[in-house]
Amino acid sequence: MTRLFTRTIGEQGPRIAFCHGLFGQGRNWNQIAKGLADDFRVSLVDLPDHGKSPWSESFSYVGMADTLAAELGELAPGEKWTLVGHSMGGKVAMLVALRHPDLLERLGVVDISPVSYGGLRAFGKYVMGMRSIDLESISSRSEAEASLQERVPDATVRGFLLQNLRRDDGGFAWQMNLTLLGDSLSKLGDWPADAISTGTTYGGPVLWVAGAESAYVTTEYDDAMRRLFPRAQLITIKRAGHWVHSEQPEVFLAVLRRYLTADT
């Protein structure tokens, strides 16, 4: 099987794994993981085509989910997990719950819904920006950032994207599979409903976290979520957008810890 890159912190307690969003890495969850490591064994996963994990020849949410499920089974044979995913990682986590429910004790879905969002226009601008950087001519990260600034004016987003830039044989290269991911935005924005048998649900507890200033979780998506996850509990965090766990980490951690310690 294809092994994903993972890093686990914490030496005792229940298993919990975190999945990042598009263009992210497992380390995006470092702050939350450190807040849980005294009581949980926390695994940070680089999903396929991201971070230090292997690249794929084609993009598939189902393929991602099945690869992740196999990895969790290898990491802790016979043990059950809490799986928490943000954005793209949230869709992957939902599919793991629906396709491999015996692996999970609980599910956490962060600022995403099981629906199609279209072509992810904002991320299309990010892709154009990253592709516009001449990796052969730049000699520093600051040059890369300057090149990206016009298409990605938000400094926080630029920093997030440039985490994927690494030195390669004296030059620079993208650590993620930018070609595949950039060409797959329509699939990334979609939800593979046809991969789920009619009537399939996940019966375990689900924490569904939304940022109050985000448009990824709205009342129009409530029915789609609860059809698949009838035990979903929606918590909306104020003064947070799509990146809830990085914009309001203390509040998010408190919400998550309360969920993890509640009776199922």
Helices and strands in order:
Blueprint: E1 6-9, E2 15-19, H1 30-36, E3 41-45, H2 61-75, E4 81-86, H3 88-99, E5 104-110, H4 121-132, H5 141-148, H6 155-162, E6 165-168, E7 171-174, H7 178-183, H8 185-188, E8 206-211, H9 222-228, E9 232-237, H10 244-247, H11 249-261
Parallel strand pairs: 2-3, 2-4, 4-5, 5-8, 8-9
Antiparallel strand pairs: 1-3, 6-7
Describe this structure in words.
The protein is α/β, with parallel strands linked by helices and 264 residues long. The chain has eleven helices and nine strands. Strands 1-3-2-4-5-8-9 form a seven-stranded mixed sheet, with helices on both faces. A two-stranded antiparallel sheet has the order 6-7. Helix 1 packs across helix 11 and helix 2 packs across helix 3. The longest helix has 15 residues, at 61-75. The protein is globular.
Order of helices and strands: EEHEHEHEHHHEEHHEHEHH
How would you sum up the global shape?
globular
Structure summary, number of beta strands: 9
Residues in helix, %: 25-40%
User: Runs with pLDDT <50, length 5+?
Assistant: none
What share of the residues does DSSP label as strand, in percent?
15-25%
Q: Which structural category fits the helices and strands?
A: alpha/beta
Total DSSP helices: 11
Report mean pLDDT, rounded to a whole number: 95
How would you write the strand order of the largest sheet?
A: 1-3-2-4-5-8-9
Which value, in Å, is the CA radius of gyration? Answer: 18 Å
Query: Tell me about the biggest sheet?
Result: 7 strands, mixed
Alpha carbon gap, first and last residue: 32 Å
